[in-house]
Amino acid sequence: MSFKTIFSIPKCFRLTLWFLCVLLGLLILSPIKAIAEPVRLLALGDSLTAGYGLKKGEGFTDQLQAALQGDGLEVSVINGGVSGDTSAGGLARLDWMLSDTPGPQAVIVELGANDGLRGLDPVQTRSNLEQILIRLEQRKLPVLLTGMMAPPNMGSEYGEDFKRIYYDLAEGHDVVFYPFFLDGVAGIHGLNQPDAIHPNVDGVAEIIRRILPPVKQLLGRL
Questions:
Q1: Residues 67, 165: one domain?
Q2: Catalytic residue among 2, 46, 47, 76
Q3: Has residue 14 got a pLDDT over 60?
Q4: Is position 189 annotated as part of the catalytic site?
């Protein structure tokens, strides 16, 4: 259509045509803007998530975000870790963690390590974690549940009951499941801090290497 043809159209129709062109442009550009915004991934956990004893950039959430972005995925990982937190503590602050605007679009649940260290009743730990999963399901948020193991000094019976919590929850809920958060790191001297509990920067890197595929599976559910 030439300029001469356009200006031969009555003014009211020209305005309508201009409006439709602007509207079409907005419709075309809107999806591009949405894609450009990073996915908000909340990591709800304890000191293992918080990055206890590590410098800025060395903790779980920082290294996970860097790894995802290095693979071309625009993801902002929110550090929802509180050192010393139990499953009960995570449940108590869950609604507050979800109240930010805009809220998270997916959640990693890493809780229970302190329950095991303190020898808390596995029945209560299971109940707390299940309530967390139910609340996240109600908000239609995809979840990656990471399992934990109790320390050996708690005894084999307690250890088995504790480990079973996570497998049962994974079977009963539609979550991505990673059986042991510290897989490949727990008990290995060179990958842990002097307390032999918290991973050092290399230990976190190993966790990221192993957990990255399940995290990508989680993001694929969005």
A1: yes
A2: 47
A3: no
A4: no
